[in-house]
Amino acid sequence: MKLLDFLSPPTEAAQRAGPGNRIVLSSRVRLARNVAGFAFPGWAKKAERQRVCELLREAVVRQPQMRDGFIATLEGLSALDKQILVERHLISREHAAKGAGSALVLSRDERLCVMINEEDHLRMQALLPGCQLKEAWLAIDELDTGLEQELDYAFSHTLGYLTACPTNLGTGIRVSAMLHLPALVLDEQITQIIQAVNKLGLAVRGLYGEGTEALGNVFQVSNQMTLGESEIEIVERLAKVVAQIIEHEENARARLLENRPKMIYNHVGRAYGILANAHSVSSKEAINLLSLLRLGVDLGLLPDLRRTLVDELFMLSQPAHLQLRHSEKLSAEERDILRADMLREALREVRRPLSPPPAPPVDKPPAT
Amino acid sequence: MKLLDFLSPPTEAAQRAGPGNRIVLSSRVRLARNVAGFAFPGWAKKAERQRVCELLREAVVRQPQMRDGFIATLEGLSALDKQILVERHLISREHAAKGAGSALVLSRDERLCVMINEEDHLRMQALLPGCQLKEAWLAIDELDTGLEQELDYAFSHTLGYLTACPTNLGTGIRVSAMLHLPALVLDEQITQIIQAVNKLGLAVRGLYGEGTEALGNVFQVSNQMTLGESEIEIVERLAKVVAQIIEHEENARARLLENRPKMIYNHVGRAYGILANAHSVSSKEAINLLSLLRLGVDLGLLPDLRRTLVDELFMLSQPAHLQLRHSEKLSAEERDILRADMLREALREVRRPLSPPPAPPVDKPPAT
Fold this sequence. Notes:
two-stranded antiparallel ribbon; Creatine Kinase, Chain A, domain 2; homodimer; 2 domains; 368 residues; 14 helices
């Protein structure tokens, strides 16, 4: 089966909303595991990697959650397929760069994805829409438990699960939430929030994970430590911090609307004006402007516009998703034009954002 | 009479179109003259400046062209009045900075303006809309001839009219045209054009004359030399160069529309989108975006919009004109908000710019 026949179309994917969707775009828990007796993928020769890959693929597809899933070797995927998977946050950029001896298995509902021979033999994740950290943990824990019955995981009674990089040692868990924080950015509080979160031993990253920019005011918050705490403690601690960040963002939105409404209306108005009228838009600009449009929807400034449409445009504005809609290979310049055409068309029937209620009159009629 | 009661309102002023208005915003000829036996304004003591001022004012107001004109000493004008006169290009920034002993006389039709004790005793100009260099020359020559019958101009049979700065010596003439050249800027030909014009001994300056930026793609082309050529030769030479620049600009517009239509539509669309939706716009941004909107009108992309409305908004976006519409003294931040309100309101009923005709279909339906 082809990846594109398997994956749900963007409209449908964007409609999968979870609780707290207004600020938390998605919740993710991933576990790193390795099989005893085999070298880590970075050390293993090709033949050994292929052997491990075969073994693990069989174990993964036997799990009931993965029934009717999508299975592919990295060699079997086109560059476009891999990029689509990255843009959907289903695989890491690092995994997309792998070749022979690496594979992936994606569950039918697209909530579970197992990368084979990424940095570790197994990197399995549950990715749920909205704020569902605990649900994501339960889902991936169940898959991991099933796999552990079949596989001999590399495990030390003193260190826990062994991983290729010591930063994952112990529980091998990475819990993360993707947060949309435009008001904290506009209110210039974001640096302070990031510092506070860092002090709690949590990491804040950009849209595509480690080493990436915070495009579109989207920040990924995740645990740093994988040792010395149980998985559920890590999940609950992150959930608590996420709840606090949500509160800060909501407060910042209310405060900006109260104290600096013109600034908010200006940002939302400009974003709408450009997206509805430009004839060339880069993916970076599109994502940044769509973020402001999403804020406008959240604040009720764009009564015609649904948040799911913004989320769909967000997805469709990314290079591989845009390429998908066109048969010929596009240059970056052509993509920018087609992206603008798509955005203009999507917003054609959407009326201009509202203006703030008028201030008490202080003006006289024009003097000349 | 108050200046603001005398000056025509912006709507009316913007409707005074001249021939070739599409590219030539205005044509100006100014003459520098001094009266024999008095020190130049920069050297004269206050009492002498005031004596000259009195003498010249009387001579100027006796001219038939200046009947029912507006007469004011620089001390008698408010800072706002002076700024309005600068924004209308009726006086120089330098003259606006003058105080006791300086004055101005403006003709009823606002086409002639005499500055008394600017850098020279007399700086008189004719300012006409559109491409009317010769007409401007004839108008100011007539006023000068009238004045010369009453005044003893400082004149040397070898050097011509004597002026405070040697760059004006001889004819004392400065002929200039204000050109709107957005396509030459977008096509990156403008630097080359400026260099070519400079080689012909002509100067290219920004919107407010010497030492100012080319805001809004507006360039002022003027003669540099005032010696060795007759006035009419200077006027005709400049007119010829202006005609060539107009041709280059028209060619650039046609070429861009033919070869890079998306780029043009993108610039015009974005300008419209921002102006119609922003809630804070600086005067510099407004002027730059209105320039692109004017290009859109010229190219037929905005069938709802009249060029005179764009020209009016151009005028009204300048700080002093904006302040005029409001009784309280505005901060720069407040001005930016009120400017945006004015622009949004003006464009409320103007439909989005057209899109280019669709390219031949090459796309398949979306793949996912």
